[in-house]
Every structure is written in C-alpha cells, then in structure tokens.
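Weekly modeling sync, notes
Attendees: S.R. (lead), two postdocs, one rotation student

Agenda item 3: backlog of single-chain predictions. S.R. asked that every request posted to the team notebook include the full sequence so nobody has to chase files. The rotation student volunteered to paste the first one in as an example of the format we agreed on. Action items at the bottom.

Example entry:
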Amino acid sequence: MVLTGDSTIYELLQQKPDAAQVLFKFGMGCVGCAIAKGETLREAAAAHGVPLAEMLSALEISEA
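Predicted structure, as returned to the notebook:
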C-alpha cells in the first residue's frame, strides 16, 4: 500500500512505526488513541493546525 495524505494514522504506523516520532514533533501525542485508527493524515493535520505538506514531507510520503 502506498501511503498518502489520505492514509490513516494507523496505516502509517503499521508501515512506518518510526513515524510516531515525526508525529510527536508536530504535536500529535495521541497516535495510539481510538481516533487514530480512522483519522487520515490530512484530517489530523487540519485538527492540529499543522501544514499538511510540511508534515507529509517530514514523513517522506506523497500528498496525493
């Protein structure tokens, strides 16, 4: 599976467990919460006021 901005936090962490550290740097401390299973990276960025492109770049994934 190719990760994008529409992937869920859960999918991201399944493929890239070290990505949790990147999310923490963006103020997303609840990567293991129930919402993370269904919340997309796009939704998480918006909810936390983080520029999506910046976060995806740090995670080394595409915005599409």
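Discussion: group reviewed the output briefly. The radius of gyration is 10 Å.
Action items: rotation student to repeat for the remaining queue; S.R. to check formatting next week.
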